[in-house]
Amino acid sequence: MSPLPERECAVHSQLNVTSAPSSTTATAKPASFIEHYIGLQVAGAASLLILALEEYGDGGLSPKTKEQSGQLIFELFRLHQFMIGRGNFDAIARQHGVAVLRKDDINLTTAEIAVDEVLKILAQVVKSQLS
């Protein structure tokens, strides 16, 4: 599944976008496969959240957006469970999710807010599964 929704261009064109400055340096540690994958999934969920807000303003969420959102949250739940004892999932998700969104020209503030909201939703899902 693609980490970004098909309508991303329409969503991104309505956002205040700025070019992301390059953050790569010779001393930067490359992300592991799992960190990169977590970032892609978080960015995908954040993009769908932005799309959902746009659709909501236009009269309601489409079934496709609801389905894709559910699939990505489920995948993030699985990744969260996998990462227990292996690393700080929230920190990895936040860092790499924002980085993926920034590469797609989403401004920093929008990227951080969208990723934080996705992590709040995920925390509610995790909490409900532990009850």
Largest sheet, if any? none
| Approximate shape | globular
Helix content: 55-70%
Count of helix runs: 5
Q: How large a portion of the residues is in β-strands, by DSSP E?
A: under 5%
Our Rg estimate from Cα atoms comes to 15 Å
How many domain modules? 1
Overall average residue pLDDT = 83
* Sequence stretches where pLDDT stays below 50 over 5 or more residues: 1-26
Give helix and strand order, one letter per element, not per position: HHHHH
Describe this structure in words.
It is a single chain. By secondary structure, the chain is mainly alpha-helical. It has one domain (32-130). It is built from five helices and no strands. The longest helix has 25 residues, at 33-57. It is globular. The termini are far apart. Mean pLDDT is 83; it is low at 1-26.
